[in-house]
Each structure stands twice: as structure tokens, then as C-alpha cells.
Amino acid sequence: MVNKRKICVVLINRANYGRLKSVLVAIRNHPSLELQVVVGSSMLIYRYGKAVDVMEQDGFRPNAVLYSLIEGEIPQTMAKSVGVALMELPGIFDRLRPDIVLTNADRFETIATAIAAGYMNIPLAHTLGGEVTGTIDEHIRHAVTKFSHLHFVAHERARERIIQMGEDPRSVYVTGNPNLDIIKDLDLSINPNEFWKQKGGRKYGGTGATVNFLKPYLLVVQHPVTTEYQDGERQIFATLEAIYELKIPSLILWPNPDAGSAEVAAGLRRFREKHNPSFFHFLRSN
């Protein structure tokens, strides 16, 4: 009997799951690997879509859950959420005994995964390192890079940046962005209006106009800038005022749980109450 190497993937929000879904499938289907999944943060929260339910519908059951997200959407709660995750992850890793931990990108929860794995002498693999985005996310990403032993990057420039940071070139692999796997596998023969009606309209309907996806429309998402979190309401209101002038049907997504999320949400509500736009659809997360 072959001893399988245990790969533990830590997922912390719905975008995180989307980026790594094809990776989960590949690990699960590999004869020499055993997939372990730890689910935490907003993946477990109904207000942010509770993506763990989607994950389970896709056939992935969590080996452990991590309730670490402290709500409040301010810098203090982001920092405290990292601390809560760091308190819980060592016990989870000790129980699961993974051979490798895999984490993704730059979310504030990612640094807790890197620190826990690092101090427990568990090799860490990191996807989508080497990017440049600014604010705290970039600091987190580069810090996780320095904790990591294997790097799976989206393009050659990202590889070059990681090597410039002192990482062994033999540990850096240009694999592309796993997000593209989802796009590649889309069934383009499906009428998007029917898909929305059958899948989205019932569960993720939100409020506002019906968008005809066979005609031009806008998809709008604006997350808070964590270094300007108190200005989130004004920023999203300015964005929506500009889009309103275009008179193009628009699908508006709710923000993530970063500091400033409450302000962005307040701006969305205030705009909706002021204009009641007949061509906007506000898509709720849950």
C-alpha cells in the first residue's frame, strides 16, 4: 500500500475557494496524494455567502473548520482575526499531520496559516505570490512568500520578483492562475439568463432590476481600501454615481469583510435609497 502525501489546503473565503477549486480536484484525483481541507473565516459566515455549502455541494468535505472572523470591519478586528486563527491552526495541523500546507494569495488570514505552518516545521506551498497590489495585502503576500518553501505563480514577472526576494529559483514554478481553469471549463452553450433564473435568481437574487445577460451590462465590485477604510462610503457612492450616469444595466456585488466593509455597504444602501435605479441589481452574498 502506497503511503499518500497529505496536502492540507486552507480556504478562507469564496474567492479563495474559486481560485483553488481546480487545485483541490487535482490533488483529490492524484493517486499519491491525500487532500485535507481546512475551512475558516468568511467561508463559514452566512452574510458572506457561506461558501462552505457550495464547496460541499461540489463534493469537498472539510476536515476541520476554523471560526476566526471577528466582525466589525475595522483594522483592529482584522488584526484580532489573525490572532484567533493563529490560536486555532496549530491544534488543527497537529491533529491532521499534513506533509504540506497550501495557502493562497494575500488575505489577512493567510499570514496566520504561514506562521502556524512555519513554527510547526510543516513545508508551506503558496499560490499567486510575487504580485504587486499595494496596501496591507502586498505586505501579507510578500511575508507569506518568505515563509514558503514552494511557490506557484501566475506569470514570469512574479517569478522574477520572488527570486529577487532571495528564494531558490528551483522552488518557483510558473503555473498560471488557477482561476482560468474555471473559465476554461465553462459551458458556453448555456443561456446565461436561464442559468441565472435556475441557479442564481432563486438563491442569490438580491434586489433591483432584472439584468439581460445577452445584452451589454456592467459587473461592479468595490472592496474597501484598508488604509482608507473610513472613507469607504464616499468612495463607493462616487463610483455608483458615475455608473448611474452611463445608464447601463449593472450588477452590483457586496464587499468583502475587510476593514471599511460596513462603510461600503452603507454607501450601497444610501445610493439605492436616493436613486432607486431601475437598471441596477444589487446582488446579495447569501
Topology:
Elements: E1 5-11, H1 14-29, E2 33-40, H2 51-57, E3 64-66, H3 75-96, E4 100-104, H4 108-119, E5 124-127, H5 135-147, E6 150-153, H6 156-164, E7 172-174, H7 179-184, H8 192-203, E8 207-208, E9 218-220, H9 232-246, E10 250-253, H10 261-275, E11 280-283
Parallel strand pairs: 1-2, 1-4, 2-3, 4-5, 5-6, 6-7, 9-10, 10-11
Antiparallel strand pairs: 8-11
Helix pairs in contact: 3-4, 4-5, 9-10
Account of the 3D structure:
With 286 residues, this protein is α/β, with parallel strands linked by helices. The protein folds into two domains: 179 residues, 3-Layer(aba) Sandwich (Rossmann fold); 95 residues, no CATH class. It is 44% helix and 16% strand. The chain contains ten helices and eleven strands. The strands form two sheets. It has a seven-stranded parallel beta sheet with strand order 3-2-1-4-5-6-7, with helices on both faces. Strands 8-11-10-9 form a four-stranded mixed beta sheet, with no helix packed on it. Helix 3 packs parallel to helix 4. The longest helix is centred in the N-terminal third of the chain and has 22 residues. It is globular and about 60 Å long. The mean pLDDT is 91.
Give a quick precis of the structure:
The chain is an alpha/beta fold and 286 residues long. The protein has helices at residues 14-29, 51-57, 75-96, 108-119, 135-147, 156-164, 179-184, 192-203, 232-246, 261-275; strands at residues 5-11, 33-40, 64-66, 100-104, 124-127, 150-153, 172-174, 207-208, 218-220, 250-253, 280-283.
